[in-house]
């Protein structure tokens, strides 16, 4: 009887130690982004959460902070630098303010299609740019995806660059985009994404530009009537971690985060493809007028001055490499 009791006592003790050990050791990771729950970014965060929990046997628990719950993309990136948030998926919108080497990716009409963009970002050039980002008190884990950006507005159909004249178009907080829309004759208004819907509703701005996954997940048809499929820039996403989290991880754990980031990228790209396949019909179904036949060359010419300014400031090395890689 005594022997049985002591066995029970020991196993209860062992169990509570391990439970106490694992409970104590669980780390909560806030993962922020600006788009809606179940959007393309959200699918990535959810896939990351599942993978990192599996690999870490439940040690790492991801808490998704969607829809700008923790601020716009610039706030989120600053949060990583001060350690107030652990993980972020962001566009390159404000990233150039932290790592100017990435501004080349924001040049309009740089990438000819998704395949070209993905293969370049998944390759040597993409790795080099991730390394540059990681030199700026950030940990760049992987290039994800936002999509090709298009223009919406509430005033009139945009068929040619002339139709952009004087329109107050919200842009990301990005010097290259501001330059491009200024050159095309619009009046660009840089603004954090969480503020855009209300600003459109109150007609502080006339329009905005974003990929189909963002336009659909933000229900833009409620505040915008016209969509023009310019595809004027490929918008990458980037998965970032905070250095203060990173330095606490073992080499094995760092490998888990990189593996989970790759799984997240695949999930986001899959959602982008689904949104691209059905998004335009969905928007038309909600009453938006869609201009599909767009004179891309006219828009390419209209935003051309942005290249001159960029090259004057940053040179054309990386630009030429990206262009050559698509020949
Ligand atoms: O990254 O700010 C933007 O327009 C971005 O496309 C959005 O935050 C998703």
Provide a descriptive summary of the structure in words:
This protein has 13 helices and nine strands. By secondary structure, it is of the alpha/beta class. Helix 2 runs antiparallel to helix 10 and helix 6 runs antiparallel to helix 12. Helix 6 links the parallel strand 5 and strand 6. The protein has a single domain, classed as 3-Layer(aba) Sandwich (D-Maltodextrin-Binding Protein, domain 2), CATH 3.40.190. It starts with a helix and ends with a helix. Strands 1, 2, 3, 4, 5, 6, 7, 8 and 9 form a nine-stranded mixed β-sheet that branches. Bound molecules: (2R,3R)-2,3,4-trihydroxybutanoic acid. The site of (2R,3R)-2,3,4-trihydroxybutanoic acid has 12 residues, from strand 3.
Fraction of residues in β-strands: 15-25%
Which ligands, by name, code or SMILES, are bound?
(2R,3R)-2,3,4-trihydroxybutanoic acid
The H-level CATH homologous superfamily, spelled out, is Bacterial extracellular solute-binding protein, family 7
Uncertain residue segments: none
Give, in order, the helices and strands: HEHEHEHHEEHEHEHEHHEHHH
Structural class: alpha/beta
CATH architecture descriptor: 3-Layer(aba) Sandwich
Number of strands: 9
Question: What portion of residues is helical?
Answer: 40-55%
The biggest beta sheet is recorded as: 9 strands, mixed
Tell me the name of the CATH class: Alpha Beta
